[in-house]
Specification:
Blueprint: E1 21-24, E2 29-32, H1 34-41, H2 65-88, H3 109-118, E3 120-122, E4 140-147, E5 166-174, E6 181-186, E7 191-194, E8 197-199, E9 202-204, E10 207-211, H4 223-234, E11 240-244, H5 246-255, E12 259-263, E13 267-269, E14 274-276, E15 279-283, H6 286-293, H7 303-321, H8 324-327, H9 330-343, E16 345-347, H10 353-364, E17 371-375, E18 378-381, E19 384-390, H11 394-403, E20 435-440, H12 447-457, E21 462-465, E22 476-479, H13 484-494, E23 501-503, E24 510-514, E25 537-539
Parallel strand pairs: 3-16, 4-11, 6-17, 20-21, 20-24, 22-23
Antiparallel strand pairs: 1-2, 4-5, 5-6, 7-10, 8-9, 11-16, 12-15, 13-14, 17-25, 18-19, 22-24
Helix pairs in contact: 3-9, 5-6, 5-9, 6-7
């Protein structure tokens, strides 16, 4: 974090940027004050330097009939337009804990440069296309990683100097039509397969069974390793990632003027240092961080207790950011944009304030009542009570809903279903000439052999079994260039959905990897239309959520 006296790019000492912006009543947008524009250009407003930002100052309307006409028709139009113009201010920092994206201060070159300098990025390596879930249908999937790194934080938070792991992870799915969103919390104690990955030039071996949080930090793993782990776990293709640390929670909560939270009973947690009486409180800075870290003094005292607290906090922060007192305040917008860009580490594809702005506006289209938080369905690990495993059936059902862009919000209009390949006739191909290798990743012995028997019965005479692979939640059908029609026919014969197809297969033929979502040879595994029973969920517009309700 920068300290001391800063100067802008012209060499002039920085004034508070929020004080340099004024509302243009004609456009409903903020512009630099004329004197600030002169400083930004390094001279007179009428003679900007080459490359300096050009700032237009609203001109007075001419007098006369034109002015009278404007006065007659303009007053009511301006009155009607105030709400609309207020909405034009929605170039805001959208989201929470990393989904708080920077925007709203573009236009002045020095501001653009200032915000861009704040942003850190990582060039992630997520592997070959054949290893990844198929690209979606214009839905947007953002991976938000909260790291518990203590680097540079001294002894205040324990584990001094720890590089940190994936302590809090959210998969933020925004629907194709931007009408709804599902935010999936992934418990840090969940036992998963962490795949091989690369961090820079270093290749890092994976693990067939490891805690999810070790997908970051452990052995030098970067956010790309967490990205690959989530894709492998859920079968959902990630578009971008954002990572934040402890300081981000403190700075963002402070930038919006505090976040309202609720405790149904008094909380006294000696580990997070949160001391809070029962009732509603507005928290920011250290107290906000203590709230999202608390788990020992609420509910059952584990990560599954802490997750709903974090969902409550993030929901409240989203509401605060979308409130009028934030959106109409130049000072708050500037503080939020500055804090957000300082807080974020992103993938290199979005390491520019304009790209973040566009992404923020896309996310901001979702109404808070249609944002639903939920948690991966899990059970206690039978081999270790301090660890978790996926709840069979329920977890795969939820992952399949997200991959198929199905909403968890009851009030949202139902998303258009993603058709299964098996819903239509298979493409006309010569099945006898198709080479198919079936590998078993279901965790249930014999499934590959059953699938091969079914394929041969349907004319795929060259179908054979391959070696088993580690268990995975969703299956795939990979194919080399020019064989998509063959892969579609194989998927249809096995009842696999269209989302299972993967371009770029390495073998000469079609390779099927069966996952836990393969419910039986010949049984269609079309995307579910309903959520698992008793699924934990919190809606972003619910103001009645309190901490101890999760006991």
């Amino acid at each position: 974090m920068n300290s001391g006296h800063r100067s802008d790019d012209s060499g002039q000492p920085d004034a508070d940027p929020a004080d340099q912006w004024v509302l243009d009543p004609e456009t409903g947008e903020f512009r630099l004050r004329p004197d600030a524009a002169r400083r930004a250009s390094g001279g007179r407003a009428g003679a900007p330097q080459a490359g300096a930002a050009r700032t237009e100052v609203p001109r007075a309307r001419p007098a006369g009939r034109a002015g009278a006409s404007a006065a007659a028709g303009g007053r009511s139009a301006r009155r009607r337009g105030r709400v609309v113009r207020g909405r034009r201010l929605l170039t805001w920092a959208a989201g929470a804990l990393g989904l708080v994206l920077a925007a709203g201060c573009g236009g002045a070159l020095y501001v653009y440069r200032h915000l861009n300098r704040n942003i850190s990025s990582v060039n992630v390596q997520v592997g070959d296309e054949s290893e990844r879930p198929r690209a979606g249908n214009a839905a947007l999937n953002l991976l938000v990683i909260g790291t518990d790194s203590r680097v540079g934080l001294g002894r205040d938070y324990g584990d001094e100097g720890s590089t940190g792991h994936a302590d809090t992870t959210l998969l933020f799915h925004i629907s194709k039509d931007r009408s709804n969103a599902t935010v999936l919390s992934i418990p840090r104690d969940l036992m998963v397969t962490v795949p091989d990955c690369r961090s820079g030039e270093k290749r890092i071996p994976g693990s067939a069974r490891a805690m999810f949080n070790t997908s970051l930090g452990q052995d030098g793993r970067d956010p790309g390793c967490t990205w690959k782990t989530v894709e492998k776990l859920t079968g959902v293709r990630i578009d971008h990632f954002m990572m934040v640390n402890f300081e981000a929670v403190k700075s963002l909560s402070t930038a919006v003027g505090g976040v309202e939270v609720c405790a149904a009973t008094a909380i006294d947690d000696p580990y997070s240092h949160l001391r809070m009486t029962a009732g509603r409180h507005v928290v920011q800075g250290e107290e906000a961080l203590a709230f999202v870290r608390t788990r020992h003094a609420v509910g059952l005292g584990g990560d599954l207790t802490r997750i709903p607290l974090q969902q409550q906090f993030i929901s409240s922060m989203i509401r605060k950011m979308k409130s009028s007192d934030t959106l109409t305040s130049p000072a708050k917008l500037w503080n939020l944009a500055d804090a957000a860009t300082r807080a974020l580490t992103v993938d290199s594809a979005i390491d520019d304030v304009n790209r973040l702005k566009d992404l923020a506006l896309d996310v901001s289209r979702v109404n808070t009542r249609n944002i639903t938080f939920t948690t991966v369905p899990v059970l206690d690990d039978p081999t270790d009570n301090n660890r978790l495993v996926l709840k069979p059936g329920d977890a795969q059902q939820l992952f399949a809903m997200i991959a198929a862009d199905r909403s968890l919000t009851e009030t949202a209009p139902p998303a258009s279903p993603t058709p299964s390949v098996s819903a239509s006739e298979p493409p006309p191909i010569d099945a006898e000439a198709v080479r198919v290798t079936v590998r078993n990743g279901t965790g249930t012995p014999g499934q590959a052999g059953r699938a091969v028997s079914l394929l041969r019965a349907k004319g795929f005479a060259l179908a054979v079994t391959g070696s088993n692979v580690e268990a995975r939640s969703t299956g795939s059908v990979s194919y080399p260039a020019g064989q998509e029609d063959r892969a579609q026919a194989v998927a249809a014969a096995l009842g696999l959905p269209a989302t299972a197809l993967r371009a770029g297969g390495r073998s000469a033929g079609v390779t099927v990897v069966l996952g836990a979502d393969f419910v039986g040879a010949g049984t269609p595994s079309a995307s579910p239309t309903g959520a698992p029973k008793d699924l934990q969920r919190v809606r972003a517009d619910d103001t009645n959520v309190c901490a101890s309700k999760f006991k």
